[in-house]
């Protein structure tokens, strides 16, 4: 089975980390967000991934020189100008001929971290497709829906079990919708849907394609309460890392890489420290991500931050993203 993975965005909210490194290639534990996504897709039966590339494609090509990752074959579709999400899906899917095939395919945002079962989503979509679905969308509940586009859907019809999406409410005021479910960034699509995604001009799947499909009763919902984070914001990016090493996920990884050097008088708590990173004498690091190769100076204090460049001796860093120039 094929998946299209969207990795062409600018990742502006994670600047300056994303000035040089595209968001999906930022570390998640001791791998990257994208590599964990590949592991996840492979487990769900995906054999081939088309990376929908735009902003900074080169780091992706260099990262996977044999065009394989986690046992998945990689294909590259590079946009000459940003096509937005639906444009990118149309362009990438056509580049490997999915428009002339008959098989459904998975689509995933490249910055989503989740324990959703891809196999369940695909199996449910197969049933939905027999009842007219052109796509099935994973939904996740959020505490405060007012910051999101909320998705309203039918409760399952007993005989069929299907949940049809009724519509989308953008940033709802309190009391205007009963739903707390938002688009969770993973979909299964029928190849026929590609007729609506020409892939030759910018088009948004969230703002245009899905609301249109909902009007046609051709978009079905797959709500789950699985672990889920959109890692594209500073606080969620750090949180996604801490959750992976603290054991709240299905997967768990080493918090501190074995090649990292932490001085005996330094204190590192609830943090990820990458390969070859150093933490100097008397320094404290808590609830943070220290990228591979980065150096935390003596007596520095780092809290709730992501550190790509070096932190100088005695510096205090809190709730910050430190880019390649350091601090
Ligand atoms: P921000 O700039 O911080 O909003 O991040 P972003 O550019 O990644 O945007 P957003 O998180 O809304 O994008 C959702 C997903 O779509 C991400 O996986 C992006 O990489 C991807 N994406 C957004 N726009 C494009 C595009 O024009 N082309 C491609 N190929 N992918 C895109």
Written description of the protein model:
- With about 325 residues, this protein is α/β, with parallel strands linked by helices.
- It has two domains: about 1-230, Spore Coat Polysaccharide Biosynthesis Protein SpsA, Chain A (Alpha-Beta Complex), CATH 3.90.550.10; about 255-320, Hexapeptide repeat proteins (UDP N-Acetylglucosamine Acyltransferase, domain 1, 3 Solenoid).
- The chain has six helices and 25 strands.
- It has helices at about 35-45, 60-65, 85-95, 120-130, 205-215, 235-245; strands at about 1-5, 25-30, 30, 50-55, 70, 70-80, 105-110, 110-115, 135-140, 150-155, 165-170, 180-190, 220-225, 230, 260, 265-270, 270-275, 280, 285, 290, 295, 300-305, 305, 315-320, 320.
- The strands form seven sheets. Strands 5-6-4-1-7-12-9-13 form an eight-stranded mixed sheet, sandwiched between helices.
- Strand 5 (about 70) and strand 6 (about 70-80) form a beta hairpin.
- The longest helix has 13 residues, at about 120-130.
- It is globular.
- The model has no long low-confidence stretch (mean pLDDT about 95).
- Bound molecules: guanosine-5'-triphosphate.
């Amino acid at each position: 089975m094929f998946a299209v993975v969207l990795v062409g965005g600018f990742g502006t909210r994670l600047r300056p980390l994303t000035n040089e490194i595209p968001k999906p290639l930022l570390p998640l534990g001791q791998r990257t967000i994208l590599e964990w996504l590949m592991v996840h897709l492979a487990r769900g039966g995906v054999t081939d991934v088309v990376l929908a590339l735009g902003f900074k494609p080169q780091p992706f090509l260099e990262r996977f020189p044999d065009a394989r990752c986690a046992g998945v074959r990689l294909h590259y579709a590079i946009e000459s100008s940003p096509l937005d999400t639906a444009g990118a899906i149309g362009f990438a899917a056509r580049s490997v001929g999915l428009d002339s095939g008959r098989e459904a395919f998975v689509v995933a945002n490249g910055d989503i971290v989740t324990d959703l079962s891809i196999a369940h989503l695909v199996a449910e979509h197969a049933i939905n497709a027999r009842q007219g679905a052109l796509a099935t969308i994973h939904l996740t509940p959020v505490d405060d829906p007012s910051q999101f586009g909320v998705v309203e859907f039918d409760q399952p019809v007993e005989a069929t079990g299907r949940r049809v999406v009724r519509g989308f409410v953008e940033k709802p005021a309190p009391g205007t919708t009963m739903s707390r479910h938002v688009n969770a960034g993973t979909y299964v699509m029928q190849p026929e849907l590609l007729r609506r995604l020409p892939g030759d001009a910018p088009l948004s799947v969230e703002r245009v394609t899905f609301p249109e499909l909902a009007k046609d009763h051709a978009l079905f919902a797959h709500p789950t309460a699985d672990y889920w984070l959109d890692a594209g914001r500073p606080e969620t990016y750090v949180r996604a890392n801490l959750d992976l090493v603290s054991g709240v996920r299905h997967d768990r990884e080493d918090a501190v890489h074995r090649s990292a050097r932490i001085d005996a008088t330094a204190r590192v708590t609830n943090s990820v420290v990458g390969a070859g990173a150093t933490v100097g004498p008397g320094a404290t690091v808590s609830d943070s991500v220290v990228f591979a190769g980065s150096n935390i100076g003596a007596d520095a204090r780092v809290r709730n931050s992501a550190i790509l460049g070096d932190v100088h001796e005695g510096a205090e860093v809190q709730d910050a993203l430190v880019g390649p120039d350091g601090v």
